[in-house]
Amino acid sequence: MADIADRAMIRGASDRDAADARALPPLAGAPVGPWRALAERAIEPNGYYQPDWELAVDASARGRTDASVLSASNDAGQLIGLLPVIPMRRIYKIPLPALVGAEPYGTLCTPLLDRDAAEHAIAKMFQQARDAGAHALILRTMSLEGAAMTAIRAVLARDGLRPRLLSAYQRAELDATRDADALLRDALGAKRLKELRRQRNRLAEHGAVRFDVARTPHEVAAALETFLALEAGGWKGKRGTALGQHPGDAAFIRRAAVAMAEAGRCEIITLYAGDTPVAGGIVLRHQDRAFFFKIGIDERFAKSSPGTQLTLELTRHLCADGAIASADSTAAPGHPMIDPIWRGRFAIGDVLLPLRRHDPLVPVIHAAVTMRGLAYEAARRAVGFIRNRRGKSA
User: Fold this and answer.
1) To the nearest whole number, what is the mean pLDDT of the chain?
2) Looking at residue 2, what is its pLDDT?
3) Where are the alpha helices (DSSP H) in the chain?
4) pTM of the model
């Protein structure tokens, strides 16, 4: 990786001019009350940067602890902007002077910006980043066409700067203002819906099918344990990526789900066949948007498509809720289950925001991130190829 950047330039930036998270306040010390108030006024919702969620992530989630924070207040001392960050060297293992939006265990890093002072907040946060030695700010899984990015572009343009797009894709979302039955007919068609009804009837052979929504902290705490068991019993458990398999992750989700439920911002959904849970999911809420965080299924019922059946019920649930206008799938691009059901799309991606004009380090940072991304994608494809070969030979 060092070959893609000028070594002298990196050495010159590594100490005196390097982005130093120690120059920024720790996220754990951010004032919770003002943070909650800012979330209510945010120009664009992000369920994963709400304080009850992100502070739980920062406290114990694997590889996601000990973040710093960029923040801004107005002349009256009111919090108007907040973004958890970590140094580039920590996430990319590259010693260059940049800060990266902290990944909040949900694939969305759109900062919280006061709807009445978004550009002022961004300008102050950019200056805070510069004062900490950063030459660039990298926002991963950022909403590319939302109000927050519009404000960011405006602030950069005033300084003769523009964002650099590192990656982009279209992510599935639900238009929850529509009638659910009409939406599902349009998305899936009569033939597919008929097949799903047949599969649901097969599921009902194991007992009456019901959809349960846990809302209160007590209900959420109990339903979460059911979800964690479902997730650990499936392919995520086999790969070692289920939340309940790691103490830090388990502590994070137990703390976050209950705290969010106390504010009415977390639901655990479960699909049962009789007394047997066959699929479950975690759904967050922020303003008028829902966020489908995780799903787990009992693979013994795979022929009945329990994950799809759960998503159909969630679609009806959200469309019937007048407080929800849309839902972010938080899914990977081209997700085979949810993309055919939630046909709405919005642009998501990674962006590099330069903080100084004519800065020779910005192209170096850009190149370093690009090359690392190419190496990661090559490794991911190799792992997928090996897994497929093993599956065919088993």
Assistant:
1) 92
2) 31
3) 7-14, 32-41, 51-60, 88-92, 118-131, 147-158, 180-204, 217-232, 235-239, 247-262, 306-319, 361-393
4) 0.91
